[in-house]
Amino acid sequence: MDDARIQAVLCAVSRLAAWPAPEELSDGLSAPLSRRCLALCTGLVDEPGLREALRIPGIPPRTAVVVAARGVFAAPLEWVVLLAAAGARVHLKVPQAAPAFGVAIAETFSAEGLAVVASASHLLPDAEAVVAMGSDETIAAVAARYPAARTALHGHRSSFALVSEDADAEALANDVVLYDGRGCFTPTAIFVVGDPSSLARRLGEALEHADTAFPPGAPAHGPEWRRRLGLARARGRLLGGDRWAVAILGPEHAETVALQRFIGVHSVASVEEVTRRLLPWKGRIAACATDLPMARIADLTPLRLERICRPGRLQAPPLGHPHGGVEALRALYFHPSVETGVA
């Protein structure tokens, strides 16, 4: 573990956190929400967490490619932090339509002497390790491009919440609002064990407050938004419906694709019911936010969740957290068997 390199990475992240106009980096988020999201993603990088994430046995890659997708603009930061701290030369492939955050990462890391470059070109260099985020088609293309590399490939996934009637509505609204509903850690459904009415009302109040404090960027209210509004009005109850919406519906109407500040709230009788309904998406669900005791949520095990956290923490995964059930760097390291007697 190289102390000087770790300090350089931390300084680079500090430079990024102090970026004077975060809205330039956030791919369309409003200025207040951009500031909040930039502070969140950079604040997740600290020295204890970084050192813990680097305690992976094996040999780190000398070269790495990180392919970023549009959505949560901050998504590539964790991987660049970890790989640069491990000593890899990092090539960051940025989305052509939203390159600004990746370019800023390369600028701030390079200023600290770290070998990080950013490019929007589809011509990717050879590398020992490859991280990719994006559509299933993108993941397949990257896998074909690097058949011999060590990889961490992440296609589309979704998240949900499973809570009690008395759950923290402000915390759940935070999960819904951050990054304007983009990315795999945005909850697409909130399952309530019991009567969802009170929680839905409080959640609507929290989203109304967030609309003022952290307004959305350009509205993304197209045909799917209107379809879900109509469904809620016809089959359940609807709160809001203009700039935000809470749809109270039966669990058979739970969605696995997020919309900007639209959330379904669904009453269920048990944890087992949630597992049964979500089992067709096994392996495609990233995380669950819950306030239920661990003993009660053990029945979620068949879903192969990546993370289980408290409400309000879905969008704030710990640095180096497991991706697909594997510690972030482990899949990218070379793991030879080193026998006794080797110096």
Structure explained in plain terms:
With 343 residues, this protein is α/β, with parallel strands linked by helices. The protein has 2 domains: 165 residues, Aldehyde Dehydrogenase, Chain A, domain 1; 148 residues, Aldehyde Dehydrogenase, Chain A, domain 2 (3-Layer(aba) Sandwich), CATH 3.40.309.10. Helices cover 35% and strands 18% of the residues. It has a 7-stranded mixed beta sheet with strand order 8-9-10-7-6-11-12, with helices on both faces. Strands 3-2-1-4-5 form a 5-stranded parallel beta sheet, sandwiched between helices. α5 links the parallel β2 and β3. The radius of gyration is 21 Å and the shape is globular. 43% of the residues are buried.
Query: Helix count, per DSSP?
Result: 11
Number of strands: 12
Number of domains: 2
- What is the terminal separation in angstroms? 18 Å
Strand composition percent? 15-25%
Taking pLDDT < 50 over at least 5 consecutive residues as the criterion, the unreliable ranges are: none
Structural class: alpha/beta
Give the neighbour order of strands across the main sheet.
8-9-10-7-6-11-12
Largest sheet: 7 strands, mixed
* Main CATH class of the largest domain: Alpha Beta
Binned, the helix content reads: 25-40%
General shape:
globular
